[in-house]
Amino acid sequence: MSTLGIVLVAAGRGERLGAGKPKAFVELQGSTLIEHCVSTITALPHGGHLVIVVPEALAAETLSLVSATVEPGSLWEISVTPGGRERHESVRFGIDALHDTANVVLVHDAARPLAPRTLFERVAAEVARTGDSVIPALPVADTLKRVGEGGIVHETVDRSPLVAVQTPQGFLREQLAAAHDRLGSAAPDSSENGPTDDAEVVQRAGGTVRVVAGDMLAHKLTVPGDLMLLEALLTTETG
Ligand code: CTP
Ligand code: MG
User: Fold this and answer.
1) Residue 154 domain-assigned?
2) Quick check: ipTM above 0.95?
3) I need a surface site. Which of 58, 74, 121, 185 has the fewest CB within 10 A?
4) Counting atoms of ligand 1 from 1, which one is nearest the CA of 53?
5) Over the stretch 197-206, which tens digit does the pLDDT of each residue have?
6) Membrane spanning segments where (predicted)?
């Protein structure tokens, strides 16, 4: 039987947030970002296999944290596995740890703790419907400018074909695994040229990527100012 696989990447250092601990272990209204994600994911119908990728030293702590989060009788099996130096390495370790019964795989950043269940469902359904890779995206609202040396504006960029991309991103497992294997065996990239999301990894391997509507709730925690925004979104959501 084919099931849903989810890789939750939570092994980053959170340097831009500067909270003195890895970002995924920062709390938002009393629960870590990982716990917020796990409670959304384990409420998805049908169940599946969730692999949480964390810094090696925090693996045991993560297991006990999430065991307390999951409702008894949940159809989700949860594993914890250590991450790598770069995000794409962490994703690769997560894919390797997934059961091969998982046909469709979603990769999600723990740094997007409020991404709603409907977004996971929308992405997974579109992968199943099309067989393509699927990413949630929002239109860009701000005016965009290309800026050169000394802060001099060269031009305004046409924003109509541009979108801002979120996670969860969805893939056929075999396609995602093959694309990551190919990246892993290629010459190491300079840090500017490394892929910043999984859709890019699949596209470099020749795969087709399509968008579905994103969700403001999937806002990413990157810098301290994002904490205020996420707190406000969480308060609005939970009343
Ligand atoms: N991530 C990961 N392994 C890494 C790097 C990042 O699992 N080696 C995860 C992060 O935990 C996060 C997601 O990828 O959930 C997006 O990365 P980012 O927002 O850049 O998080 P950090 O790398 O933790 O933050 P920073 O870049 O500020 O250090
Ligand atoms: Mg990072």
Assistant:
1) no
2) yes
3) 185
4) 7
5) 999 999 999 9
6) none
